[in-house]
DNA sequence: GCTTGACACGAACAGCGTTCGTAACATCGA
DNA sequence: TCGATGTTACGAACGCTGTTCGTGTCAAGC
Protein backbone atom coordinates (compact mmCIF):
# COMPACT_ATOMS: atom_id res chain seq x y z
CA UNK A 1 0.00 0.00 0.00
CA UNK A 2 1.19 3.53 -0.65
CA UNK A 3 1.95 5.55 2.48
CA UNK A 4 -1.01 6.82 4.41
CA UNK A 5 -1.31 10.56 4.78
CA UNK A 6 -0.30 10.14 8.40
CA UNK A 7 2.95 8.48 7.41
CA UNK A 8 3.62 11.15 4.83
CA UNK A 9 3.18 13.83 7.41
CA UNK A 10 5.33 12.05 9.94
CA UNK A 11 8.17 11.71 7.45
CA UNK A 12 7.89 15.35 6.55
CA UNK A 13 8.74 16.00 10.18
CA UNK A 14 11.40 13.33 10.42
CA UNK A 15 9.48 11.39 12.93
CA UNK A 16 9.43 7.62 13.10
CA UNK A 17 6.04 6.29 12.08
CA UNK A 18 4.41 3.05 13.21
CA UNK A 19 4.50 2.09 9.59
CA UNK A 20 3.63 -0.45 6.97
CA UNK A 21 4.81 -1.28 3.45
CA UNK A 22 4.23 0.47 0.13
CA UNK A 23 2.81 -0.43 -3.26
CA UNK A 24 2.05 1.23 -6.59
CA UNK A 25 -1.00 3.46 -6.88
CA UNK A 26 -4.21 2.26 -8.45
CA UNK A 27 -7.52 3.79 -9.15
CA UNK A 28 -10.21 4.19 -11.69
CA UNK A 29 -10.26 7.88 -12.44
CA UNK A 30 -9.21 9.59 -15.65
CA UNK A 31 -6.91 11.85 -13.61
CA UNK A 32 -6.15 10.20 -10.29
CA UNK A 33 -6.27 12.26 -7.13
CA UNK A 34 -2.79 12.95 -5.85
CA UNK A 35 -1.35 15.11 -3.13
CA UNK A 36 0.18 17.33 -5.79
CA UNK A 37 -3.15 17.75 -7.55
CA UNK A 38 -4.81 18.66 -4.25
CA UNK A 39 -2.12 21.24 -3.52
CA UNK A 40 -2.49 22.72 -6.99
CA UNK A 41 -6.24 23.02 -6.67
CA UNK A 42 -5.97 24.49 -3.19
CA UNK A 43 -3.39 27.07 -4.23
CA UNK A 44 -5.62 28.09 -7.10
CA UNK A 45 -8.47 28.75 -4.71
CA UNK A 46 -6.27 30.70 -2.29
CA UNK A 47 -4.78 32.78 -5.09
CA UNK A 48 -8.20 33.69 -6.39
CA UNK A 49 -10.32 34.02 -3.23
CA UNK A 50 -7.92 34.05 -0.29
CA UNK A 51 -7.13 31.59 2.46
CA UNK A 52 -10.46 32.16 4.19
CA UNK A 53 -12.22 30.77 1.16
CA UNK A 54 -10.20 27.57 1.24
CA UNK A 55 -12.49 24.68 2.16
CA UNK A 56 -12.11 20.98 1.75
CA UNK A 57 -15.35 21.00 -0.18
CA UNK A 58 -14.17 23.63 -2.61
CA UNK A 59 -10.91 21.81 -3.21
CA UNK A 60 -12.85 18.63 -3.79
CA UNK A 61 -15.21 20.40 -6.17
CA UNK A 62 -12.26 21.75 -8.15
CA UNK A 63 -11.12 18.15 -8.50
CA UNK A 64 -14.65 17.10 -9.45
CA UNK A 65 -15.13 14.83 -6.48
CA UNK A 66 -16.51 14.85 -2.96
CA UNK A 67 -14.73 16.01 0.18
CA UNK A 68 -14.27 12.48 1.51
CA UNK A 69 -11.91 11.64 -1.32
CA UNK A 70 -9.32 14.10 -0.07
CA UNK A 71 -8.82 12.35 3.23
CA UNK A 72 -7.00 9.47 1.60
CA UNK A 73 -4.21 11.90 0.73
CA UNK A 74 -4.33 14.56 3.40
CA UNK A 75 -4.67 14.12 7.15
CA UNK A 76 -6.91 17.11 7.71
CA UNK A 77 -7.21 20.77 6.83
CA UNK A 78 -4.24 21.84 8.94
CA UNK A 79 -2.17 19.27 7.14
CA UNK A 80 -3.27 20.75 3.84
CA UNK A 81 -2.19 24.18 5.04
CA UNK A 82 1.21 22.81 5.93
CA UNK A 83 1.49 21.18 2.53
CA UNK A 84 0.74 24.50 0.87
CA UNK A 85 3.46 26.25 2.85
CA UNK A 86 5.79 23.40 1.97
CA UNK A 87 5.10 23.86 -1.71
CA UNK A 88 5.66 27.60 -1.49
CA UNK A 89 8.94 27.08 0.35
CA UNK A 90 10.14 24.57 -2.20
CA UNK A 91 9.74 27.15 -4.91
CA UNK A 92 12.10 29.54 -3.17
CA UNK A 93 15.65 29.03 -4.29
CA UNK A 94 18.50 29.74 -1.94
CA UNK A 95 21.74 31.35 -3.10
CA UNK A 96 25.19 29.93 -2.51
CA UNK A 97 26.51 31.94 0.46
CA UNK A 98 28.83 34.78 -0.49
CA UNK A 99 30.40 36.19 2.67
CA UNK A 100 30.64 39.74 1.37
CA UNK A 101 27.04 39.85 0.22
CA UNK A 102 25.30 38.28 3.19
CA UNK A 103 22.98 41.24 3.79
CA UNK A 104 21.75 41.41 0.23
CA UNK A 105 21.35 37.65 0.16
CA UNK A 106 19.24 37.54 3.32
CA UNK A 107 17.13 40.46 2.19
CA UNK A 108 16.63 38.69 -1.11
CA UNK A 109 15.38 35.50 0.49
CA UNK A 110 13.03 37.37 2.80
CA UNK A 111 11.69 39.44 -0.07
CA UNK A 112 11.03 36.35 -2.15
CA UNK A 113 9.20 34.75 0.74
CA UNK A 114 7.19 37.93 1.20
CA UNK A 115 6.15 38.09 -2.43
CA UNK A 116 5.41 34.40 -2.54
CA UNK A 117 3.12 34.67 0.48
CA UNK A 118 1.44 37.78 -0.88
CA UNK A 119 0.49 35.97 -4.06
CA UNK A 120 -1.68 33.74 -1.88
CA UNK A 121 -3.53 36.16 0.40
CA UNK A 122 -3.85 35.05 3.98
CA UNK A 123 -1.74 31.93 3.57
CA UNK A 124 0.73 33.25 6.14
CA UNK A 125 -1.80 32.09 8.70
CA UNK A 126 -0.74 28.57 7.83
CA UNK A 127 2.90 29.58 7.92
CA UNK A 128 2.55 30.82 11.49
CA UNK A 129 0.92 27.53 12.45
CA UNK A 130 3.48 25.34 10.69
CA UNK A 131 5.52 23.28 13.09
CA UNK A 132 9.23 24.04 13.44
CA UNK A 133 10.12 20.53 12.32
CA UNK A 134 8.64 20.79 8.85
CA UNK A 135 11.34 19.85 6.42
CA UNK A 136 10.47 22.40 3.76
CA UNK A 137 10.59 25.34 6.12
CA UNK A 138 13.72 23.93 7.71
CA UNK A 139 15.29 24.08 4.27
CA UNK A 140 14.81 27.84 4.21
CA UNK A 141 16.23 28.06 7.71
CA UNK A 142 19.25 26.03 6.64
CA UNK A 143 19.85 28.35 3.71
CA UNK A 144 19.56 31.50 5.78
CA UNK A 145 21.73 30.05 8.51
CA UNK A 146 24.45 29.28 5.98
CA UNK A 147 24.31 32.84 4.66
CA UNK A 148 24.49 34.45 8.10
CA UNK A 149 27.31 32.20 9.28
CA UNK A 150 29.25 32.92 6.11
CA UNK A 151 28.71 36.60 6.85
CA UNK A 152 30.42 36.14 10.19
CA UNK A 153 27.41 36.33 12.45
CA UNK A 154 27.77 34.38 15.68
CA UNK A 155 25.80 31.12 15.66
CA UNK A 156 23.45 32.03 18.50
CA UNK A 157 22.63 35.44 17.05
CA UNK A 158 22.16 33.88 13.63
CA UNK A 159 19.79 31.21 14.96
CA UNK A 160 17.60 33.66 16.85
CA UNK A 161 17.81 36.23 14.08
CA UNK A 162 16.47 33.79 11.51
CA UNK A 163 13.62 33.02 13.80
CA UNK A 164 12.74 36.69 14.14
CA UNK A 165 13.02 37.31 10.43
CA UNK A 166 10.81 34.43 9.38
CA UNK A 167 8.27 35.33 12.03
CA UNK A 168 8.26 38.92 10.83
CA UNK A 169 7.82 37.96 7.19
CA UNK A 170 4.81 35.84 8.06
CA UNK A 171 3.25 38.46 10.29
CA UNK A 172 3.88 41.29 7.84
CA UNK A 173 2.38 39.46 4.90
CA UNK A 174 -0.60 38.36 6.96
CA UNK A 175 -1.25 41.95 7.98
CA UNK A 176 -0.89 43.23 4.44
CA UNK A 177 -3.23 40.53 3.17
CA UNK A 178 -5.88 41.42 5.72
CA UNK A 179 -5.56 45.14 5.12
CA UNK A 180 -5.88 44.89 1.37
CA UNK A 181 -8.56 42.22 1.36
CA UNK A 182 -11.45 43.72 -0.61
CA UNK A 183 -13.88 41.75 1.51
CA UNK A 184 -12.63 43.55 4.60
CA UNK A 185 -14.92 46.25 5.83
CA UNK A 186 -12.11 48.31 7.31
CA UNK A 187 -9.84 48.57 4.30
CA UNK A 188 -9.25 52.23 3.86
CA UNK A 189 -7.16 54.51 1.69
CA UNK A 190 -4.11 56.23 3.08
CA UNK A 191 -5.87 59.59 2.89
CA UNK A 192 -8.88 58.26 4.73
CA UNK A 193 -6.67 56.76 7.42
CA UNK A 194 -4.75 59.99 7.76
CA UNK A 195 -7.90 62.02 8.19
CA UNK A 196 -9.20 59.59 10.79
CA UNK A 197 -6.02 59.83 12.80
CA UNK A 198 -6.12 63.63 12.60
CA UNK A 199 -9.70 63.58 13.78
CA UNK A 200 -8.87 61.70 16.96
CA UNK A 201 -9.66 63.29 20.34
CA UNK A 202 -7.02 65.29 22.16
CA UNK A 203 -6.07 62.30 24.26
CA UNK A 204 -4.01 61.25 21.22
CA UNK A 205 -1.68 64.24 20.83
CA UNK A 206 1.33 62.42 19.38
CA UNK A 207 -0.75 60.31 17.05
CA UNK A 208 -2.48 63.39 15.70
CA UNK A 209 0.75 65.35 15.37
CA UNK A 210 2.59 62.56 13.57
CA UNK A 211 -0.27 61.10 11.57
CA UNK A 212 1.77 61.69 8.45
CA UNK A 213 4.66 59.54 9.62
CA UNK A 214 2.32 56.86 10.94
CA UNK A 215 0.60 56.47 7.62
CA UNK A 216 3.75 56.91 5.53
CA UNK A 217 5.38 54.19 3.51
CA UNK A 218 4.53 53.15 0.01
CA UNK A 219 5.12 49.69 -1.36
CA UNK A 220 7.12 47.79 1.17
CA UNK A 221 9.15 50.60 2.70
CA UNK A 222 8.05 49.52 6.16
CA UNK A 223 9.18 45.98 5.37
CA UNK A 224 12.59 47.08 4.21
CA UNK A 225 12.94 49.36 7.21
CA UNK A 226 12.36 46.56 9.70
CA UNK A 227 14.63 44.17 7.87
CA UNK A 228 17.40 46.75 7.93
CA UNK A 229 16.81 47.30 11.62
CA UNK A 230 17.20 43.63 12.43
CA UNK A 231 20.15 43.06 10.11
CA UNK A 232 21.94 46.11 11.54
CA UNK A 233 21.50 44.63 14.96
CA UNK A 234 22.76 41.22 13.87
CA UNK A 235 25.79 42.73 12.15
CA UNK A 236 26.79 44.49 15.35
CA UNK A 237 26.78 41.43 17.58
CA UNK B 1 -32.80 53.17 21.44
CA UNK B 2 -29.33 52.33 22.65
CA UNK B 3 -26.67 52.29 19.93
CA UNK B 4 -26.70 49.32 17.62
CA UNK B 5 -23.58 47.18 17.59
CA UNK B 6 -22.79 48.65 14.20
CA UNK B 7 -22.77 52.15 15.61
CA UNK B 8 -20.65 51.07 18.52
CA UNK B 9 -18.12 49.57 16.21
CA UNK B 10 -18.06 52.58 13.95
CA UNK B 11 -17.41 54.90 16.87
CA UNK B 12 -14.62 52.65 18.08
CA UNK B 13 -12.96 53.40 14.76
CA UNK B 14 -13.83 57.09 14.74
CA UNK B 15 -15.97 56.73 11.71
CA UNK B 16 -19.15 58.71 11.21
CA UNK B 17 -22.16 56.46 11.51
CA UNK B 18 -25.52 56.91 9.79
CA UNK B 19 -26.90 57.11 13.28
CA UNK B 20 -29.97 57.39 15.43
CA UNK B 21 -30.71 58.47 18.99
CA UNK B 22 -30.15 56.68 22.28
CA UNK B 23 -32.27 55.61 25.21
CA UNK B 24 -31.88 53.78 28.52
CA UNK B 25 -31.53 50.04 28.50
CA UNK B 26 -34.43 47.79 29.30
CA UNK B 27 -34.85 44.09 29.66
CA UNK B 28 -36.36 41.41 31.71
CA UNK B 29 -33.39 39.30 32.72
CA UNK B 30 -31.95 38.93 36.17
CA UNK B 31 -28.58 39.97 34.76
CA UNK B 32 -29.04 41.81 31.48
CA UNK B 33 -26.82 40.94 28.56
CA UNK B 34 -24.26 43.67 28.01
CA UNK B 35 -21.21 43.99 25.84
CA UNK B 36 -19.06 43.87 28.95
CA UNK B 37 -20.70 40.65 30.11
CA UNK B 38 -20.15 39.10 26.69
CA UNK B 39 -16.49 40.10 26.74
CA UNK B 40 -16.05 38.66 30.22
CA UNK B 41 -17.62 35.37 29.27
CA UNK B 42 -15.59 35.17 26.06
CA UNK B 43 -12.32 35.90 27.82
CA UNK B 44 -13.11 33.20 30.34
CA UNK B 45 -13.51 30.68 27.56
CA UNK B 46 -10.33 31.75 25.79
CA UNK B 47 -8.33 31.66 29.02
CA UNK B 48 -9.52 28.16 29.75
CA UNK B 49 -9.70 26.49 26.34
CA UNK B 50 -7.94 28.81 23.89
CA UNK B 51 -9.13 31.04 21.07
CA UNK B 52 -9.98 28.09 18.83
CA UNK B 53 -12.61 27.03 21.33
CA UNK B 54 -14.27 30.45 21.29
CA UNK B 55 -17.69 30.01 19.79
CA UNK B 56 -20.72 32.24 19.77
CA UNK B 57 -22.70 29.33 21.08
CA UNK B 58 -20.31 28.73 23.96
CA UNK B 59 -20.32 32.39 24.90
CA UNK B 60 -24.11 32.35 24.80
CA UNK B 61 -24.22 29.20 26.91
CA UNK B 62 -21.95 30.81 29.51
CA UNK B 63 -24.51 33.62 29.66
CA UNK B 64 -27.34 31.09 29.85
CA UNK B 65 -28.95 32.14 26.62
CA UNK B 66 -28.98 31.30 22.93
CA UNK B 67 -26.52 32.52 20.28
CA UNK B 68 -29.06 34.86 18.70
CA UNK B 69 -29.09 37.04 21.79
CA UNK B 70 -25.48 38.07 21.31
CA UNK B 71 -26.10 39.71 17.97
CA UNK B 72 -27.94 42.59 19.58
CA UNK B 73 -24.65 43.62 21.18
CA UNK B 74 -21.97 42.38 18.84
CA UNK B 75 -21.81 42.70 15.06
CA UNK B 76 -20.28 39.29 14.44
CA UNK B 77 -17.50 37.06 15.63
CA UNK B 78 -14.72 39.22 14.23
CA UNK B 79 -16.21 42.14 16.09
CA UNK B 80 -16.13 40.11 19.27
CA UNK B 81 -12.46 39.35 18.66
CA UNK B 82 -11.76 43.04 18.26
CA UNK B 83 -13.61 43.78 21.47
CA UNK B 84 -11.50 41.24 23.31
CA UNK B 85 -8.29 42.82 22.06
CA UNK B 86 -9.70 46.20 23.05
CA UNK B 87 -10.34 45.01 26.57
CA UNK B 88 -6.87 43.54 26.86
CA UNK B 89 -5.32 46.78 25.60
CA UNK B 90 -7.34 48.84 28.05
CA UNK B 91 -5.87 46.87 30.92
CA UNK B 92 -2.33 47.80 29.90
CA UNK B 93 -1.21 50.96 31.60
CA UNK B 94 1.24 53.24 29.92
CA UNK B 95 3.99 55.00 31.83
CA UNK B 96 4.64 58.72 31.77
CA UNK B 97 7.54 59.12 29.33
CA UNK B 98 10.91 59.50 30.98
CA UNK B 99 13.48 60.43 28.34
CA UNK B 100 16.37 58.65 30.03
CA UNK B 101 14.45 55.41 30.50
CA UNK B 102 12.80 55.09 27.10
CA UNK B 103 14.28 51.64 26.40
CA UNK B 104 13.14 50.14 29.66
CA UNK B 105 9.74 51.74 29.24
CA UNK B 106 9.20 50.35 25.75
CA UNK B 107 10.41 46.91 26.78
CA UNK B 108 8.05 47.07 29.71
CA UNK B 109 5.03 47.85 27.58
CA UNK B 110 5.87 45.10 25.08
CA UNK B 111 6.42 42.60 27.87
CA UNK B 112 3.10 43.45 29.45
CA UNK B 113 1.38 43.02 26.10
CA UNK B 114 3.15 39.71 25.63
CA UNK B 115 2.09 38.37 29.00
CA UNK B 116 -1.43 39.67 28.57
CA UNK B 117 -1.77 37.88 25.22
CA UNK B 118 -0.24 34.70 26.58
CA UNK B 119 -2.84 34.54 29.31
CA UNK B 120 -5.40 34.08 26.55
CA UNK B 121 -3.85 31.49 24.24
CA UNK B 122 -4.29 32.17 20.55
CA UNK B 123 -5.95 35.54 21.03
CA UNK B 124 -3.12 37.20 19.10
CA UNK B 125 -4.88 35.92 16.00
CA UNK B 126 -7.50 38.57 16.68
CA UNK B 127 -4.81 41.14 17.36
CA UNK B 128 -3.27 40.56 13.94
CA UNK B 129 -6.68 40.99 12.36
CA UNK B 130 -7.58 44.12 14.30
CA UNK B 131 -7.88 47.19 12.12
CA UNK B 132 -5.31 49.96 12.56
CA UNK B 133 -8.06 52.42 13.44
CA UNK B 134 -9.24 50.68 16.58
CA UNK B 135 -9.14 53.19 19.37
CA UNK B 136 -7.90 50.87 22.07
CA UNK B 137 -4.91 49.67 20.10
CA UNK B 138 -4.25 53.23 18.98
CA UNK B 139 -3.98 54.11 22.65
CA UNK B 140 -1.06 51.74 23.03
CA UNK B 141 0.48 53.18 19.89
CA UNK B 142 0.08 56.69 21.28
CA UNK B 143 1.80 55.69 24.50
CA UNK B 144 4.70 54.02 22.77
CA UNK B 145 5.06 56.90 20.36
CA UNK B 146 5.29 59.33 23.25
CA UNK B 147 8.00 57.22 24.88
CA UNK B 148 10.09 56.90 21.74
CA UNK B 149 9.80 60.58 20.88
CA UNK B 150 10.78 61.52 24.41
CA UNK B 151 13.77 59.23 23.97
CA UNK B 152 14.87 61.27 20.99
CA UNK B 153 13.93 58.84 18.23
CA UNK B 154 13.07 60.51 14.94
CA UNK B 155 9.32 60.54 14.25
CA UNK B 156 9.46 58.36 11.13
CA UNK B 157 11.68 55.75 12.75
CA UNK B 158 9.47 55.80 15.84
CA UNK B 159 6.29 55.32 13.82
CA UNK B 160 7.62 52.39 11.84
CA UNK B 161 9.39 50.94 14.86
CA UNK B 162 6.17 50.82 16.85
CA UNK B 163 4.53 49.02 14.00
CA UNK B 164 7.25 46.39 13.88
CA UNK B 165 7.23 45.94 17.63
CA UNK B 166 3.50 45.44 17.94
CA UNK B 167 3.49 43.10 14.98
CA UNK B 168 6.31 41.10 16.52
CA UNK B 169 4.60 40.86 19.89
CA UNK B 170 1.46 39.50 18.26
CA UNK B 171 3.32 37.04 16.07
CA UNK B 172 5.57 35.85 18.86
CA UNK B 173 2.72 35.23 21.26
CA UNK B 174 0.70 33.49 18.59
CA UNK B 175 3.60 31.17 17.85
CA UNK B 176 4.20 30.43 21.51
CA UNK B 177 0.51 29.72 22.02
CA UNK B 178 0.43 27.28 19.13
CA UNK B 179 3.63 25.55 20.16
CA UNK B 180 2.56 25.02 23.75
CA UNK B 181 -1.03 24.13 22.99
CA UNK B 182 -1.55 20.69 24.53
CA UNK B 183 -4.03 19.89 21.79
CA UNK B 184 -1.29 20.35 19.20
CA UNK B 185 0.06 17.14 17.83
CA UNK B 186 3.48 18.60 17.15
CA UNK B 187 4.26 20.05 20.52
CA UNK B 188 7.57 18.60 21.45
CA UNK B 189 10.14 18.97 24.18
CA UNK B 190 13.38 20.78 23.58
CA UNK B 191 15.31 17.52 23.79
CA UNK B 192 13.02 15.86 21.28
CA UNK B 193 13.36 18.81 18.91
CA UNK B 194 17.11 18.78 19.27
CA UNK B 195 17.34 15.10 18.45
CA UNK B 196 15.12 15.56 15.42
CA UNK B 197 17.30 18.33 14.10
CA UNK B 198 20.40 16.25 14.68
CA UNK B 199 18.80 13.36 12.83
CA UNK B 200 18.23 15.39 9.71
CA UNK B 201 19.82 14.27 6.42
CA UNK B 202 23.17 15.64 5.36
CA UNK B 203 21.51 18.23 3.16
CA UNK B 204 21.06 20.19 6.40
CA UNK B 205 24.69 20.57 7.53
CA UNK B 206 24.38 23.91 9.33
CA UNK B 207 21.11 23.00 11.00
CA UNK B 208 22.62 19.78 12.31
CA UNK B 209 25.81 21.46 13.46
CA UNK B 210 24.04 24.29 15.25
CA UNK B 211 21.02 22.42 16.52
CA UNK B 212 21.94 23.49 20.03
CA UNK B 213 21.77 27.18 19.20
CA UNK B 214 18.60 26.75 17.18
CA UNK B 215 16.77 25.13 20.07
CA UNK B 216 18.33 27.34 22.75
CA UNK B 217 16.46 29.94 24.73
CA UNK B 218 14.49 29.39 27.89
CA UNK B 219 11.59 31.55 28.99
CA UNK B 220 11.46 34.50 26.69
CA UNK B 221 15.14 34.93 25.86
CA UNK B 222 14.31 34.93 22.17
CA UNK B 223 11.72 37.63 22.76
CA UNK B 224 14.15 39.84 24.66
CA UNK B 225 16.81 39.27 22.03
CA UNK B 226 14.61 40.49 19.20
CA UNK B 227 13.36 43.46 21.16
CA UNK B 228 16.95 44.47 21.89
CA UNK B 229 17.81 44.08 18.24
CA UNK B 230 15.04 46.41 17.13
CA UNK B 231 15.58 48.95 19.88
CA UNK B 232 19.32 49.03 19.14
CA UNK B 233 18.49 49.79 15.57
CA UNK B 234 16.03 52.51 16.51
CA UNK B 235 18.49 54.11 18.90
CA UNK B 236 21.06 54.37 16.16
CA UNK B 237 18.88 56.25 13.65
C1' DG C 1 -55.63 50.31 30.14
C1' DC C 2 -53.56 50.50 25.86
C1' DT C 3 -49.97 51.42 22.69
C1' DT C 4 -45.24 51.56 21.65
C1' DG C 5 -40.72 50.04 21.15
C1' DA C 6 -36.58 47.82 22.81
C1' DC C 7 -34.82 43.57 24.28
C1' DA C 8 -34.38 38.45 24.31
C1' DC C 9 -34.57 34.28 22.14
C1' DG C 10 -36.38 29.63 19.70
C1' DA C 11 -35.97 27.82 15.44
C1' DA C 12 -34.01 27.40 11.37
C1' DC C 13 -30.53 27.78 7.31
C1' DA C 14 -26.51 27.09 4.82
C1' DG C 15 -22.12 25.73 5.23
C1' DC C 16 -18.16 23.61 7.55
C1' DG C 17 -14.53 19.47 8.75
C1' DT C 18 -14.57 14.81 9.24
C1' DT C 19 -15.94 9.65 9.34
C1' DC C 20 -18.12 5.42 7.88
C1' DG C 21 -19.50 1.95 4.89
C1' DT C 22 -19.55 0.50 0.33
C1' DA C 23 -18.91 0.24 -4.64
C1' DA C 24 -15.50 -0.08 -8.38
C1' DC C 25 -11.40 -1.26 -10.15
C1' DA C 26 -6.21 -3.34 -10.98
C1' DT C 27 -3.41 -6.78 -9.92
C1' DC C 28 -2.03 -11.49 -8.45
C1' DG C 29 -2.31 -16.65 -7.70
C1' DA C 30 -4.23 -20.68 -9.48
C1' DT D 1 -9.68 -17.77 -17.38
C1' DC D 2 -11.48 -16.80 -13.02
C1' DG D 3 -12.07 -15.61 -8.46
C1' DA D 4 -9.61 -13.47 -4.27
C1' DT D 5 -7.31 -9.56 -2.53
C1' DG D 6 -6.25 -5.08 -1.53
C1' DT D 7 -6.55 -0.28 -2.80
C1' DT D 8 -8.94 3.90 -4.40
C1' DA D 9 -12.93 6.78 -4.64
C1' DC D 10 -16.93 8.61 -2.88
C1' DG D 11 -22.24 9.16 -1.30
C1' DA D 12 -24.29 9.94 2.80
C1' DA D 13 -24.35 11.34 7.12
C1' DC D 14 -22.95 13.51 11.88
C1' DG D 15 -22.14 17.20 14.78
C1' DC D 16 -20.78 21.61 14.80
C1' DT D 17 -20.35 26.42 13.16
C1' DG D 18 -21.88 31.73 12.26
C1' DT D 19 -25.80 34.17 11.32
C1' DT D 20 -30.86 35.69 10.41
C1' DC D 21 -35.85 35.91 10.98
C1' DG D 22 -40.00 36.20 13.35
C1' DT D 23 -42.12 36.10 17.62
C1' DG D 24 -42.69 36.61 22.40
C1' DT D 25 -42.22 39.55 26.59
C1' DC D 26 -41.62 43.02 29.41
C1' DA D 27 -41.08 48.47 30.90
C1' DA D 28 -42.30 53.01 29.99
C1' DG D 29 -45.46 56.90 28.01
C1' DC D 30 -50.04 58.66 27.24
TrEMBL record, chains A, B:
Residues 32-92 form the HTH tetR-type domain. One of its GO terms (molecular function) is DNA-binding transcription factor activity. Keywords: DNA-binding, Transcription, Transcription regulation. Residues 1-28 are annotated as: Disordered. Residues 55-74 bind DNA. One of its GO terms (biological process) is negative regulation of DNA-templated transcription. This is TetR/AcrR family transcriptional regulator C-terminal domain-containing protein. It comes from Streptomyces montanisoli.
Amino acid sequence: MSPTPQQRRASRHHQPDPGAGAAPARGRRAQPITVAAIIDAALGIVARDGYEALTMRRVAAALETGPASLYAHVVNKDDLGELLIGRLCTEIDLPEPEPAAWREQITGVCTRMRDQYLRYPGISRAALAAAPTNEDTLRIGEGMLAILLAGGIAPQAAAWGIDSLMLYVSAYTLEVSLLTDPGNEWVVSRDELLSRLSGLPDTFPQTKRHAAELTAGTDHERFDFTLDLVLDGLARR
